[in-house]
Amino acid sequence: MENIKSWTAEDEAIIATNTDATECKRCAVELGYWKDDYISYFVRHVDRKAPEINRGYYARVRAMEIFIHQFLERCGTKCQIINLGCGFDTLYWRLKDTTQAVGNFIELDFPAVTSKKCHIIKRNKQLLQKIANEDGEVMIREGDLHSDGYHLLGCDLRCLAEVRRKLAAAGAGPHAPALVLAECVLVYLRPDAADALLRHLAAAFPRCALLVYEQCNLGDKFGEVMVRNLSARGCVVAGARLAGSPAAQAERLAALGFDAARAWDMEAVWRSFPEEDRARVEALEMLDERELLLQLNSHYALCVATRGDIFADMDLNA
């Protein structure tokens, strides 16, 4: 039996960021920014968010999709995806509706988050039937959910021994290419804990790609306000590490055991999208605060780190 931990106020504040992100995604989906038939199971109707927030989430989701598709194009569906700090992300179900359902999909987050996600899955047939195997079997053991090709595991990412144990229980290993997703999760880990986790992943998966979405350039005035706002909510972020540019973040990933790494701020990501995509999104809502969106985009980055020749050419414009 797992040891029962008492979560700190900071842990609870980090857990609450999942609710915020899910609400923002549902709002953007309702407005037509992208299609997600499953987000409504995880959060009820929400108040409308500011246009710059909706557009920022669209850029984040679209950019992640671009690289996920590149990964699957290179290795096919006989691979594994590991979603760190998964929250109420619906990627598994969205991939399941395409020809790109992967062999093994593993999600890790605080037990408080995964237990709620597990409960939502169990009570909604549309979610449950897509994770059941041919016999319709879904096993729930010690708060973790296991099925044929999908695993939802409660885990403290700051504890490397626990991460290793959970990944092993989910069947993760060096036998298949791995895609690791980390959206706004490493920022809440102490630098030493985040580095230890990334070093382990780089060593454990000789053919892998890592996608990291988090803040950058926090050393200026706008960044200081972002850090203060998070601190006011009880979230302490690794501000010193995130003060650097996207390029500095890529250098850090390369130094932790990946063969190569590259990064872009979200303004560069937005400009890389096809003109017709940007025109469609810009037509959805009037944006009064263009300067605010530019500032937000310049303070978030997408980093891609890879191991193995098969992924060496993964790029924003590939």
Automatic annotation (TrEMBL):
GO molecular function, one term: protein C-terminal leucine carboxyl O-methyltransferase activity
SUPFAM superfamilies: S-adenosyl-L-methionine-dependent methyltransferases
Keyword tRNA-binding attributed: no
Domain of life of the native organism: Eukaryota
Binding site for S-adenosyl-L-methionine: R60, G85, D156, L157, E183
Coiled coil feature spans: none
A Pfam family hit: LCM
GO cellular component: cytosol
Keywords for the protein's UniProt record, in alphabetical order: Methyltransferase, S-adenosyl-L-methionine, Transferase
Protein name per its UniProtKB record: Leucine carboxyl methyltransferase 1
Organism of this sequence: Spodoptera frugiperda
Source species taxonomy: Eukaryota, Metazoa, Ecdysozoa, Arthropoda, Hexapoda
Gene expressing this chain: LOC118278292
